Amino acid sequence: MDHFARLGLPAALELEPASLDRAYFARQRQWHPDRFVGRPPAERAKASVEAAALNEAYRTLKDPLARAAYFASMKGVDLPGDGRTIDDPDLLMEAMEAREALHEAESVEAVEALAARARDDVAAGLRVLDGLFLRDDKPAIRKTLLRLRYLDKFAEEAQARRINLERSKA
Amino acid sequence: MTLLEIHEPGETPLPHAGEGTLAVGIDLGTTNSVVAIARDGRPAALHDETGRAMVPSVVAYPETGGVKVGDQARELMAREPRNVVSSVKRLMGRGAADLHAVAGVLPYEIEPGSGETDMVKLRIGGKARSPVEISAEILKMLRIRAEQALDKPVERAVITVPAYFDDAARTATRDAARVAGLEVLRLVNEPTAAALAYGLDKGSEGIYAVYDLGGGTFDFSLLRLEKGVFQVLATGGDAALGGDDFDRAIAERMLAERRTDGLADRVDEAAVKAALVLARQMKEQLTDRDQASGRLEIGGVPSFHALTRPDFEAMIDSHVRRTIDIARGVLADAGMEAGEVRGVVLVGGSTRVPVVREAVAGMIGKAPLTDIDPDEVVALGAALQAEALTGGGDTLLLDVTPLSLGLETMGGIVEKIVPRNTPIPVQLAQDFTTYQDGQTAMAIHVVQGEREMVADCRSLARFELLGIPPMTAGAARIRVTFAVDADGLLTVSAEERTTGVQQRIEVKPSYGLSHEDMADMLYDSLEHAEEDMTQRLLTEARVEGRRNLLALDVALQKDEALLGADERAALDAARGRLEAAIAGDDREAINAAAEALETLSKPFAERRMDRGIREALSGRSVVELESRVSDRAGE
To answer: B94 pLDDT exceeds 80?
Structure first.
């Protein structure tokens, strides 16, 4: 069963956070192991598996980027595991330049500006995806998702560098 | 329609089962413990004859024999210090390295762990006792108190643990309950229990924070409360930070003052205990007053000490700041600003320290909530959950893992399988493969922590998956599955997918984190994220480089004949340059050398491939080949 079906939601790129929460809470009320204390072991085991699957589905669908990647894989887009390999020369170039800029940024403000740009790029990329899915343009979806993964990771690194700079200043 | 239920032998379902016995909630604290019961959604702490709910978490094994717990044990502290233990919770699931000394002396006599367990033992009352059995005495006492108050047998309990407790400490707590004759319905995280008590009592909705500073542990959790759902968004803490550290700072200062005054003390366990007892009294005085004073007697020689509030605040400043740093990190993990937090609930006796309250208020920008007694709120929440689990309630507690769980991979890198703040129960798997041709075993090393390198994380367990059929490197598919149950306990299993060779272990870490380990892990991960990343990239480059070397060696062994002498010499030179680069620390140099070697070996690889194809094609008919090609096209 796919994550959308498990939560009784239509498979889509866009998902209203409130309806995702509602669906998740309702199903956890039914399957959470707390509801099965004192039940026979077989029932408890089943509940635990169901609850774990619900948590996995919720976690994946809650994060827009993870959801987009999951939705893409449902549509048959082939994504490399965890975005480790970058086979797109443009992206490789962009990544190298951004890393260099991050490395050279010596102030909290400069790092924050880079992180903010990465976040804006992620938001813009997610907006573009909708149209790509409509056209079922798999190569473009793949390219966009790989770039989004990279940007997300970059924002994380920028955050780490910002904390580092703040600490060394304090 | 009524359906008959069929049960496994010996299993009876609720709510019919055990109506004669009650389920209680227990806050097994570092300094004090509380037992409570809930009926119809109304929780109440159970008191003794004098009307007190708190039982000091102190256990004594007096000269006269028997065991004393609570106030009676505390009274023996001065007379028989060697027979009394306090703050045993700090030792749950831990090793000797986790203990804090005062003036180089521990308030206990330690026996190193022996045999299969490395958990520390204490020499108390002339006998080596484990923290598990000492904690069990406290639980037994609470159980008896509950049975007397309720006039019914009590056999089941929800017991709370710090959210930041690791697997070893959780297991030790569950074991202690078993020794005390209590079935643990659920281990619930202390801040979550506090939120439950708070939310159900006040009907609060929205985002709430719980700041829980107890005697020995600190937790900070962010929860969303909504129509009976208590969803933990993120949690963090330090399993070795609490009011005990404040006491220790004061005790150290008093001992130093005696030295300055020329008193030649023999600082032994008894002296340390006396200093700690007075330190605690002075700390408590400073809650309502600006100055505290007291008299300390060591070896029959008295001394008088005074402490002002500003001095005390300066002494504990680094501890308080650390809690605020952790709290900020939790907010960042949840992607939240302090302004989004509706209220912050204070839990734990150490939140009575005025400067702690001020720091929390300053961070969140709101006055903290204290309308439920911070000493009782956790036990009340546990009691509510005990009632919900046995009687069937409508509340839903959704908790998370406090620390990331992962595996060691090539080069000592941690591959995180379950990131911190993942909702539990959870089951996540990842596939790994073999590194060498013909590899038949794979070592699985389970670690907990946030850092990128294994050496900086805490080792939970090691096991080996044996009997992998010999295959070429990278062909085996080994799926490692991490399952964390609703109590936060981990089970790891590994399976070779092509043959089904399986191995499964319940992770029962026998040894606790040393204090610089777990205590600093989260903190460090933020501080070191950047260098970790650099280190990781370097290690990855090295692993990749070595893989290239290995592949080249295998190819040379087989098909050396395909190379001319010049080509071979050039390859050897490039191979040497890559080896030299791997020995160095320059990632770019490694990658460049690896690429150079790859470019240089390309013609060799092509020749090998051609030969492989020729071998594969020889003796086959054209028809056979064409059908293969069309198969391909159809893929």
So the answer is: no
A161 to chain B nearest CA, in Å? 6
Which of chain B's residues have a Cβ under 8 Å away from the Cβ of A25?
226, 229, 231, 396
Report the CATH number of the A3-62 domain: 1.10.287.110
Picking from A28, A159, A161, the nearest residue to B398 by CB comes out as A28
B424 touches A: beta carbon within 8 Å = yes
Q: Quick one: which of B383, B349, B31 has its CA closest to B197?
A: B383
Instruction: Give dist(CA B203, CA B197) in Å, integer.
Output: 10
Q: Do B396 and A25 touch (CB under 8 A)?
A: yes
Q: Best interface-test mutation with A: which of B159, B207, B223, B229 has the largest number of A CBs within 10 A?
A: B229
CB B350 within 8 A of CB B242: yes
pLDDT digits (tens, 9 = 90+) for A105-157: 788 888 888 888 888 888 888 889 988 988 988 888 988 888 888 888 888 88
Q: CB distance from A112 to chain B under 8 Å?
A: no
DSSP letter at B130 equals -
Dihedral angle over CA of A94, A100, A104, A107, nearest 10: 40
Return the minimum-mean-pLDDT range out of A21-35, A62-76, B600-614.
B600-614
Under a CB-based contact definition with an 8 Å cutoff, are residues B461 and B492 in contact?
A: yes
Buried b (16+ CB within 10 A) or exposed e, B103-125: bebebbeebebeeebbbbbbebb
Residues contacting B314, CB < 8 A, separation 6+: none
In chain A, domain spans: 3-62, 81-169
**Quick check: B17 contacting A, CB < 8 Å?**
yes
Residue of A nearest to B7 (CA): A40
**Partner A contacted by B396 (CB < 8 A):** yes
* Domains of chain B and CATH, by start: 22-242+315-398 (3.30.420.40), 243-314 (3.90.640.10), 405-512 (2.60.34.10), 527-617 (1.20.1270.10)
Q: Enumerate residues 6+ apart whose C-beta is below 8 A from B14.
A: A37, A38, A39, B390, B391, B392
**Which of B384, B433, B526 to probe the A interface (max A CBs under 10 A)?**
B526
Q: Please judge whether A38 and B14 are an interchain contact, meaning their C-beta atoms are less than 8 angstroms apart.
A: yes
pLDDT digits (tens, 9 = 90+) for B367-414: 998 888 889 999 999 999 999 999 877 788 999 998 899 988 878 888
CATH match for A81-169 among 3.30.2350.10, 1.10.260.40, 1.20.1280.20, 3.20.20.370: 1.20.1280.20
The CA distance from B458 to B165, in Å, is 13
Spatial neighbors of B184 by CB under 8 A, at least 6 apart, are B156, B157, B158, B159, B173, B174, B177, B178, B487
Q: Residues of B with catalytic annotation?
A: 27, 89, 190, 212
| Summary mean pLDDT of chain A | 86
Query: Global pTM?
Result: 0.77
Counted residue by residue, chain B has a size of 635
Name the A residues in 141-160 with CB < 8 Å from any B CB.
157, 159-160
Is it the case that residue A28 has pLDDT exceeding 90? yes
Q: Does B533 touch chain A (CB under 8 A)?
A: yes
B425/chain A closest Cα distance in angstroms: 5
Cβ contacts from A onto B, under 8 A? 86
Give the gap in angstroms from C-alpha B316 to the nearest C-alpha of chain A. 18
